[in-house]
Design a protein that fits this description.
Spore Coat Polysaccharide Biosynthesis Protein SpsA, Chain A; nine-stranded mixed beta sheet; two-stranded antiparallel sheet; alpha/beta; about 250 residues
Amino acid sequence: MEKISLIIPTFNESHNIVECIKSADFADEIIVVDSFSTDNTVDLAREHTDFILQREYKYSASQKNWAIPQASHEWILLVDADERVSPELRKEIIALLKSPSLYDFAGYWINRKNFFMGSELRHSGRDKVIRLFRKSKCRYEDKRVHAEIISQDKIGLLHSKLYHNTYISFDHHIEKMNRYAWWQAEDYDKETGKITVYHLVLKPSWRFFKEYILNRGFMDGTVGLTLALIDSYSVFTRYVKIWLLRRGRR
């Protein structure tokens, strides 16, 4: 079986780290990349691995791109602390690591099963991420928010899902959204023209329509409506913050 390195970026993830590691403990090497947690994340992680790196956090893509070359093996499984490798995904990855077809692709998309406010999102909030990939062929694009793996080679798709539960509390989620909006403002600033009604009204409205109607968020009830409204507001906030950045305000 092809050997594989597991990379988990962390910051104050004591409530997540153990279950995250256990879900993917088939890996030959477990690397925890910690941003100087102030809780007992590192102590808990040390019960499962001695390979713990610490580096000051700048943004997600920077942290992950720094960690990737530290891995000993060509194949990497990168899992955020708030994610879990499902039993089905675990079996699929192990089978793939034993198969000659593994090298047909430089990496693999994995669909996520997302949870929000204690409920599974069956319709809204659907996404996929590249989390199984070759060290020599893949890196994250240099973006502050929602950076994805880039590669010159073909990317495949796995059938099983990665569980994702980023929700801790409503206030925590809004705080995180606000922080991400500032980072997105910096990412989008150079490629965005003059801020107009299009950015402040039409784009947020389209996001709501897409998430709540086209992606059938209405079928997720109150949770789906809440998420669609938050996503719409995050788009609005992003462009307000671009406007503020250009005037030297925050």
